[in-house]
Amino acid sequence: MHQEEFIEVALGEKKADLVLKNAKIVNVLTEEIYESDVAIVKGRIAGVEREYHGEKEIDLKGAYLTPGFIDGHVHIESSMMLPHRFAQAVVPAGTTTVIIDPHEIANVLGLHGITFMHEATRDLPLRVYTMLPSCVPATPFETSGFELNSYDLSVLIDRDWVLGLAEMMNFPGVIHRDKNVMAKIDLALKNKKRVDGHAPKVSGKDLCAYIASGITSDHECTDPQQAIEKLRQGMYIMVREGTAAKDLDALMPILLHDNNRKIIFVTDDRHPEDLKIHINGMVQRAVDNRVNPIKAIQMASLNTAEYFKIQDLGAIAPGYRADFNVFENLQEFTKPKMVFKGGEVVAENGELTNSLENMEIPATRGSVNVGWLEDNCFQIQAKGDKVKAIEIIPHQLITKETVAKVNVENGLAESNVEDDVLKICVVERHRASGNVGKGFIKGFGIKQGAIASTVAHDSHNMIIIGTNDKDMYLAQKELVKSQGGRIVIKDGEVLAKLPLPIAGLMSDKDYEYVTSQSEALNVAAKEIGCKVDDPFMTMGFVSLPVIPELKITDKGVFSTKTFDFIDIFDVE
User: Fold this and answer.
1) Residue 304: inside a domain
2) Residue 7 placed within a domain
3) Last residue of a domain, which of 264, 290, 316?
4) Are 110 and 207 within one domain?
5) Do 80 and 40 sit in the same domain of this protein?
6) Where are the beta strands (DSSP E) in 475-524?
7) Beta bridge pairs of residue 548
8) Cα angle 71, 72, 77; round to 5
9) Is there a contact between 497 and 519 (Cβ–Cβ < 8 Å)?
10) 22 burial class (0-12, 13-18, 19+ CB within 10 angstroms)?
């Protein structure tokens, strides 16, 4: 019990552990700025008043003190880095807390994946809370590593580091009151925890029903009208700015509205090169677009903490955790002068104050378990020279169904490189079932070789696109050897490779290595003719059968129009 000590420090009867002197307090509770001292004891604020004294004192000389920034929804696995490497990137940017959804690793390793992420976040200069994945697997149309039902999730729901149930992507399951879906929502609500939503273009009575189930947020709004409808119905709006999905500019009008206390900032999925400017970059963009700086900071801190019922985060007041950022002014947020977590300086001028190089990483098992594949495993018996192919749309996750001509050689359907019609295969890599889904894709522009990855949403089987079976076969062999990763092959040679041995999703190497290898992969992809800006991100979503119109899983080519698998040669 430390209450008496807090009271003594608050009254000035006892020295604080640390006092921040002459700070311009950005008070997100009253939306005002004033100069004061901040007394801190045992990582919490004891008082915000003049004339405190501490065992240690830091004179901020009139610099602005803001609450630490909070990312309200992020998949750390998308950075392809372990949590401590992720922290190395985002903490110097002013992010002191993240709420993670370990959905990706849970699809591979189940409950062990969730607890692995928690264990890997111990002793970081970053607070990490977890929302339990709600959709593992996302669909029954693919083979995942695990299935998690409400009974499985009940093992973890009462932990203090678990804040609720993550994005409920199964909108139809909510509307039709699927028993498994309802049991998961009920589990969170009975434990008085949040249920996050995922409701793109859901509107009207369907939206009312979705919210009536107990779901209270959404990060899928892409225009102000969608956001306003959801705000009217009581939802919190998570404004997302990821690597692929960027909604901040489109939603800027709702940030400018006077009543924006139910708006919070999230990044969702970001590649490593987009991490060093994080939530602070969203605050910067908001302020550049005439959003009141205090309001922008509020969206990056207090709003998020209040939504997730974290009562001691997000503001500068007695009893709150001493997580702060220090800025010279309220126009430039790209590099905080100082970042505090629990009253300790954890970053200064864009660099961590302590190295995280010797972090102990929990053990995981190998996760790339591929059935014995011969070099003819990618052959497609031709029933004609025309197929239903997947056509990608630049900068979008949705695809089109198109009729394309393939080459037929010795009774086999092969890539038609001249017309940009390439073979695409998904190899099941969790249970060694031997499943290989086979089809054709248009829009990548690859002229020779193959690209492959074990990051393929949401079940993360191995996905391969190539001009010839030999290079595709070599790509899958190399990724089995490294227990996951991304690779570019040309004429039997590896041009670039990023091993991802942790669940086939994350590297065990540092930020610089992951970013340099990611860049090398994109350069190598261009070298073999690829015309897609971010080919691995695009390829990674071609296997997600909940997104229209034509996708591919380890079980075959799937159409969202018929909600079933198709025969690619069934062309009218």
Assistant:
1) no
2) yes
3) 290
4) yes
5) no
6) 485-490, 493-499
7) none
8) 70
9) no
10) middle
Q: How many domains does the chain have?
A: 3
pLDDT classification of 373: cutoffs 50, 70, 90? confident
Q: What is the DSSP string of 200-251?
A: TT--HHHHHHHHHTT--EES---SHHHHHHHHHTT-EEEEEB-SS-B-TTTT
Instruction: Supply the pLDDT for residue 326.
Output: 98
CATH number at residue 168: 3.20.20.140
Q: Using an 8 Å Cβ cutoff, are 82 and 44 in contact?
A: no
Cα–Cα distances (Å) from 428 to 313, 323, 459, 461, 550, in that order, read 42, 44, 9, 5, 19
> 462 pLDDT exceeds 80?
yes
Same domain flag for 38 and 178: no
Query: What phi and psi, each to the nearest 5 degrees, are found at residue 129?
Result: -110, 160
Burial class (CB in 10 A: 0-12, 13-18, 19+), 296: buried
- My answer on whether 396 and 531 are in the same domain is yes
Query: 3-state class of 571 per DSSP?
Result: coil
**Quick one: which of 500, 503, 373, 504 has its CA closest to 436?**
373
Write down the pTM of the prediction: 0.94
Alpha carbons 37 and 179: distance in angstroms, whole number:
54
Q: Is the dihedral of CA 106, 111, 116, 118 positive or negative?
A: positive
What are the DSSP calls for 64-93, one per residue? EEEEPEEEEEE-GGGGTB-HHHHHHHHGGG
Residue 319 lies in a domain: no
- Say which DSSP state 454 is in: S
Which tokens go with 346?
Answer: 């954890």
Contacts (Cβ under 8 Å, ≥6 apart) of 448:
417, 467, 468, 471, 490, 491, 528, 529
For 320, residues 6+ apart whose C-beta sits below 8 A from its C-beta are 44, 45, 67, 312, 313, 314
264, 393: one domain? no
| 47 lies in the same domain as 170 | no
Residue 1's identity, in one-letter code, is M
> Which tens digits make up the pLDDT trace of 244-278?
888 999 999 999 987 899 999 999 999 898 999 99
Secondary structure percentages of the chain, helix, strand, coil, to 5: 25, 30, 45
Query: What b/e string do you get for 24-59 counting C-beta neighbours within 10 Å, with b at 16 or more?
Result: bbbbbeeeeeeebbbbbbeebbbbbeeebebeeebe
Range in 3-7, 89-93, 345-349 the model is least confident about: 3-7
End-to-end alpha carbon distance in the chain: 75
Q: How many CB atoms lie within 10 A of CB 443?
A: 20
Is residue 469's pLDDT more than 90?
Answer: yes
* Number of other CB atoms surrounding residue 448 within 10 Å: 15
CA of residue 268 relative to chain centroid, distance: 4
The answer to whether residues 48 and 117 belong to one domain is no
- In angstroms, the CA 456 to CA 461 distance is 6
Domain with 139 in it? 72-275+283-290
Q: Which amino acid is at 301?
A: S
Q: Is residue 39 in some structural domain?
A: yes
Helices (H), 52-178: 83-90, 103-109, 111-119, 150-154, 171-175
pLDDT of residue 132: 98
Same domain, 153 and 216: yes
pLDDT digits (tens, 9 = 90+) for 492-526: 999 999 999 999 999 999 999 999 999 999 999 99
